[in-house]
Write a structure and sequence with these properties.
- The mean pLDDT is about 75.
- This protein has one domain.
- By secondary structure, the protein is mainly α.
- A two-stranded antiparallel ribbon has the order 1-2.
- The chain has 5 helices and 2 strands, in the order E-H-H-H-E-H-H.
Length: about 80
């Protein structure tokens, strides 16, 4: 099964100074919200949120793509390394 992995071990509640604002902005997108709210590494089906991601504002998707460029090129996780 191909999957998306929330790889970061950090809890966004403790990491983001503006968590309440971010959480409220993503509340209308339950699938994406669950990814954002996940604690620790969690596996999500590859197409689980595709319809919601298509509905996100352009500035949000642009920011997501910019963050992808900052990832370590050799970061590879598989489901056995994740919980959920």
């Amino acid at each position: 099964m191909e999957a998306l992995v929330k790889a970061g071990p950090e809890d966004a509640v403790d990491t983001l100074a503006n968590w309440e604002e971010v959480e409220a902005a993503f509340r209308p997108f339950p699938c994406v919200h669950s990814m954002l709210s996940a604690r620790g590494p969690v596996v999500f089906a590859l197409d689980a949120c595709s319809h919601e991601l298509d509905e996100l504002p352009t500035e949000t998707t642009d920011a997501i793509e910019a963050q992808k460029l900052l990832r370590h090129p050799h970061l590879v996780l598989n489901e056995s390394e994740c919980h959920g």
